[in-house]
Amino acid sequence: MMTQTATSYAAIYLAPHLDDAALSCGGQIARRTRAGERILIVTVMAGDPPTDVENDYIRSLHARWDLERDAAAQRRAEDSAACRILGADHLHWPIADCIYRLDPATGRPLYVSDDDIFGDVHPAEQPLV
């Protein structure tokens, strides 16, 4: 199915987070869609955070960024609106941001500090790299 999808578009923009493609490449995307090209924006980490994952780091980031618990749904809606304005199709993958992901072996959070996020990829997520 991905091969069929891939051949249906002149370009596929792979964005790690919501709004990344619109903010980073919006001018190029708009120019291409105005020229008649079909464009797809795939956002990888666009999933809802699990409701049972909470820790001091998550709370600190939500406070720092003034985020509500349902911020992912609001951000998906904003991203969808941006894609419509740009004339691009979009696909939101249901993967939560790293601060919400747990180690499958231990059930503990993978990332609990800025150093964790901006450091090496956690060994449990190496297969994703």
Helix percentage: 25-40%
Largest sheet, in brief, is: 3 strands, parallel
> Roughly what is the average pLDDT, rounded to an integer?
91
Strand order of the largest sheet: 1-2-3
- Identify low-pLDDT runs: none
Number of domains: 1
The name of the CATH architecture is 3-Layer(aba) Sandwich
- Per CATH, what is the topology? Rossmann fold
> Helix and strand string, N-terminal first?
HEHEHHEH
CATH superfamily, by name, is: LmbE-like
Distance between the ends: 22 Å
Q: Determine the number of helices (DSSP H or I, runs of at least 4 residues).
A: 5
- Content of β-strand: 5-15%
CATH class categorisation? Alpha Beta
General shape = elongated
Q: What's the gyration radius in Å?
A: 17 Å
Topology, pairings included?
Layout: H1 2-7, E1 11-17, H2 20-34, E2 39-45, H3 56-64, H4 71-86, E3 89-92, H5 114-118
Helix pairs in contact: 2-4
Write a structural description.
The protein has 129 residues and is α/β, with parallel strands linked by helices. It has a single domain, classed as 3-Layer(aba) Sandwich (Rossmann fold). 40% of the residues lie in helices and 14% in strands. It has 5 helices and 3 strands; from the N terminus they run αβαβααβα. It has a 3-stranded parallel sheet, covered by helices on one side. The longest helix is centred in the middle third of the chain and has 16 residues. The chain starts with a helix and ends in an 11-residue tail after the last helix. The model has no long low-confidence stretch (mean pLDDT 91).
